[in-house]
Structures are given as structure tokens and as C-alpha cells.
Specification:
about 500 residues, alpha+beta, D-Maltodextrin-Binding Protein, domain 2, seven-stranded mixed beta sheet, six-stranded mixed beta sheet, globular
């Protein structure tokens, strides 16, 4: 017997045809790999494009983290072994093909992203009992199934057209992606610009804005200039000085938003006995060297949260680890006790180029106590690839804004099998495996707390801040759609974008 777990979202009626254009300045260099849900890599970046081009059976929307979309409803069995989805009738892809149960099954089986191995190990079968239903059978109860399948964690629940993809092939799909989202593909210049056009038949409602342009503008100062000139209408990721400049400029509006975005340092060589980072005292010294409050103030006007954890504070399972104070004198003392009274040459800190402001502050703080690091910024696509291939050493400034809970962050970044983990410890690994199948919520939460205590005690990382986002938009925009979806780090859903006079 299936117990209802969610209800359908009622589509709104279209009032008038879409018109006008909104141009968004993106921080990352846009890559075609982000147009395909099958390649979702565990970051929020692919969903910045997915919310425009594609749709999912279930996804976060305003007011509901698990909103039925291509599925009009979903249910879970009382024993936690069966999840069933009822498809929404009449929905079509951009090329006119209907969205079918076969497309859903095909999309899941084709998924090869962040958690593909984990999900396919735990799903026993995908069944199509009739054209309107898809049924997932699990091998054993898995409390996080819908977190992985229905939130912005894996992309496994996003649906692509089977017939079209088999016809054009993988490369053809990336060159001209077809989805079921509110915007259809028009053109793409890699690393420069993506142009989209409103899908007036979108099931939820037709977009208000006719043309959506996403431009890659990595330099934040350039993004501000383009906003002032009216060359772009919405932009993201501004540091403190530029944010103050935006606040003072007539016609521009600064809008903070709060993704589940924690930023931390990974000491990738702590498992190498020959490395200075194998010594807990060195890792603790690095933590004490960093002035997190100064970073918060300079980068986000003090709007971020200080943290000693890689887990966002609003995630289920979060444990409030004690904050590391800014104590350079104690940091130098610890380095001397570890055998480095004059400090040491520590190599590069690798970082996504979008977060260079934080990294520059971190580098200066570490150098001030004798940990002589250098600075290595990378374009986001290259950073994600090298991070996943475990090639970034000895320090990575990591960040994660994906949805989930404490357990899903552990699966990705802490467990020895995690796609972005450079190592782990037996006691932590054992607890991660044990909690994954625990159906008693209280017992499971206690395990998650214990994992975080062990991470803190071992000083595995140097957590920095839980970062507030700072977006800005120009005078033409009535609704930037920033912050409409809880935890989302961009404008979304795009069909809610609105120009003044619309």
C-alpha cells in the first residue's frame, strides 16, 4: 500500500504572450556539458541551465523542496522500498515529442553524474506498469532516495527525450539540447553566450520574457560596469567593495540570497605521512590563522555566517561544531611544536576563479603565520574536473551549494568513496556506511552528529564561511526571481522573470 508523500502543483494560466529580453551575466564560463542532466557533477552550476532548458519529475520550487513537476504526484510505500510517480498528462518536449515513462526510465539509466554508482547500486528496478506510471524498487530502505532523486543533488530525476537523443547522439544533444523546460535552445558560443527563447507551451505557465541571454562574465568589476550601462540586467557574486558600489548607484538593486553554500579548505595530503599536513597541529594552525570575520565583512558585507563545519546550518543532521578563533600567535606556536618554527613552503591553494576574493584573504592569513602558500585560480569547469580527478594538491578551497542533508554531503566530500574525497578515516567511514541504512531518524541523527564531532576533532578541514550570495539587477527588471526557491543560488524558476510593464 502506498502512502501519499506529495501533491500536484496546479499550473497557472498564461495571460499574455512573452515579450522582451533579459540578459544575465553568469560568473562561470558556460560549458556545453552543463546542458545535459546526465553529467550533473554535484554542484549547483548545471541547474542554473537546467531550470531553463529541462524539467524533472520532482524538483525544488517556491514553497516546496520536493514539488511534483513532470510527475503530477509521487508516493512512497510504508516499508521504504517502492517509490511511484504519476506522470503529468499532455507535457511535450521542445521538439513536440510527448514526455513518456520510457523517457523517465531512459534518463535515469543514462545518468552518469556524481552519484550514479551509488544510486544504481541501491535501485533494484525501474518499472513502467502503464504509460502514466513509473515505479522505482529499492534493494533496501534508503531514507535519502528522494533527496538524491528529487532535489538539486544529482540530476538523476531530470528527463531528456529518448528518441531525439538516440537520433542525434551524445555530441549532437550537447550542441542542440532539447528539453521540456520553460525555455528552448537557440544558439551557443562556448564560454561567451547562450541564447534561449520562451517555450509558450510550458505546462506550468509560459514565461513572461521572450528571450533569455546568459553571458559569461568572470570578472566581477566588469559585471558591475555592464549593469550600470544596461548591457546586462541581472548579475551575481559580488564582493564587499563592489556590493557597496552597487548599493550607491541609482537604478541598481542589490539583493542577498542564501544558498546552502559552505566554503572550506581541504588538506588533501593529510593522509601522506611525509607531508606537513599529516600533523594535526599544522591543520589546526591553519584554522587559527584565518580571520573568518574579516573575510565575511570584506566579501559579503557581514551577511554570511561563520562556521566550523562543511554542513550548512539549515541542513537536517547539522551539528554546531565550536568555531575556531582567529589566533595567529597560537598558530605559530603549533607550527613550532610540529617542527616548523620558521614555517614552511606549502604549495598552491587551488580555487574556482569565482571565489578568488576569499582565497586571496586566506592566502594572506596563512602566509602571515609562516604557511607560505601560493594562489592557483581555475575556470569552474576545469576546477570541477581536476577536483573530481583528485589532482588538486596540497590545498583545495572547496565549496558546495548543492541541496541535501548532512549525510549527502558526507557521501560526496567525506566518505573515502566520495567523488571529491581525497581520503578518510576508518571510524568516520564506518559511521557513514552505518547511518545510510538507518531508518530510525533519531538514531541516524545521532550518528551524523558523531561524524561531525570526529571531523572537527581530527581537524580534517578548515571551514571558512557559510556564504551569502549577493545578486544585483537593473532598472528594467520587475522580478529577478532571485531567492524565490529556498537555497537556490541563481534566478529560478525562470518563468517567473518579469520586466517592468509586464
Amino acid at each position: 500500500m502506498l502512502e501519499s508523500a506529495a501533491h500536484a502543483q496546479t499550473p497557472a494560466a498564461r495571460v499574455e504572450p512573452p515579450a522582451g529580453q533579459i540578459t544575465i551575466a553568469r560568473t562561470e564560463s558556460t560549458a556545453a556539458r552543463w546542458f545535459d542532466p546526465a553529467d550533473t557533477d554535484g554542484a549547483l552550476t548545471p541547474f542554473f541551465y537546467g531550470y531553463a532548458l529541462h524539467d524533472a519529475l520532482v524538483k525544488p520550487m517556491p514553497g516546496n523542496a520536493l514539488t511534483p513537476c513532470l510527475a503530477e504526484s509521487w508516493t512512497a510505500s510504508s516499508d521504504g522500498l517502492v517509490y511511484e510517480f504519476v506522470l503529468r498528462k499532455g507535457v511535450r518536449f521542445h521538439n513536440g515529442d510527448p514526455v513518456t515513462a520510457e523517457d523517465v526510465k531512459f534518463s535515469f539509466e543514462r545518468y552518469r553524474g556524481l552519484a550514479s554508482k551509488l544510486m544504481k547500486e541501491r535501485v533494484a528496478a525501474i518499472e513502467i506498469p502503464d504509460p502514466d506510471h513509473v515505479r522505482f524498487r529499492l534493494k533496501r530502505p534508503w531514507p535519502d532516495f528522494m533527496t538524491f532523486y528529487g532535489t538539486l543533488l544529482t540530476g538523476a530525476g531530470w528527463v531528456v527525450p529518448k528518441k531525439y537523443l538516440e537520433k542525434v547522439g551524445e555530441d549532437g544533444f550537447k550542441k542542440h539540447p532539447i528539453g521540456a523546460g520553460p525555455y528552448r535552445f537557440v544558439s551557443f558560443k562556448p564560454g561567451v553566450e547562450l541564447v534561449l527563447e520562451a517555450n509558450e507551451q510550458y505546462w506550468r505557465k509560459a514565461p513572461s520574457v521572450k528571450t533569455l541571454v546568459m553571458r559569461s562574465v568572470s570578472d566581477p568589476a566588469t559585471r558591475v560596469i555592464m549593469l550600470k550601462r544596461g548591457e546586462v540586467d541581472i548579475a551575481y557574486a559580488f564582493g564587499g567593495t563592489l556590493a557597496e558600489e552597487i548599493k550607491k548607484h541609482h537604478g541598481l538593486t542589490l539583493k542577498p540570497f542564501y544558498p546552502p553554500l559552505t566554503v572550506w579548505l581541504v588538506f588533501t595530503e593529510q593522509w601522506d605521512p611525509k607531508s606537513p599536513w599529516a600533523d594535526r597541529r599544522v591543520r589546526l594552525a591553519a584554522n587559527l590563522a584565518i580571520d573568518r570575520q574579516a573575510i565575511n565583512q570584506s566579501e559579503t558585507l557581514g551577511l554570511s555566517k561563520l562556521t566550523a563545519s562543511i554542513i550548512p546550518q539549515n541542513f537536517w543532521g547539522y551539528w554546531p561544531a565550536p568555531l575556531h578563533p582567529h589566533d595567529p600567535a597560537r598558530a605559530r606556536q603549533l607550527l613550532a611544536e610540529a617542527g616548523y618554527p620558521s614555517g614552511f613552503e606549502a604549495g598552491p591553494v587551488s580555487v574556482d576563479i569565482s571565489w578568488v576574493g576569499i582565497a586571496e584573504s586566506v592566502v594572506n592569513d596563512l602566509r602571515a603565520v609562516g604557511i607560505r602558500v601560493t594562489f592557483r585560480p581555475l575556470e569552474r569547469a576545469a576546477f570541477v574536473r581536476e577536483h573530481g580527478e583528485k589532482r588538486l594538491r596540497p590545498i583545495v578551497q572547496a565549496s558546495a551549494g548543492a541541496f541535501g542533508n548532512a549525510a549527502t554531503r558526507f557521501e560526496t566530500y567525506v566518505a573515502s568513496t566520495g567523488p571529491y574525497a581525497y581520503g578518510s578515516y576508518p571510524d568516520i567511514d564506518g559511521l557513514i556506511r552505518e547511518q545510510a541504512g538507518e531508518t530510525d531518524r533519531v538514531k541516524r541523527e545521532a550518528m551524523l552528529h558523531r561524524i561531525q564531532q570526529l571531523i572537527h576533532d581530527k581537524v580534517m578541514y578548515a571551514p571558512l564561511i557559510e556564504q551569502a550570495g549577493l545578486a544585483a539587477y537593473g532598472p528594467r527588471v520587475a522580478e529577478p526571481a532571485v531567492g524565490l526557491i529556498t537555497n537556490m543560488a541563481t534566478s529560478a524558476p525562470y518563468e517567473e522573470l518579469r520586466l517592468k510593464g509586464k
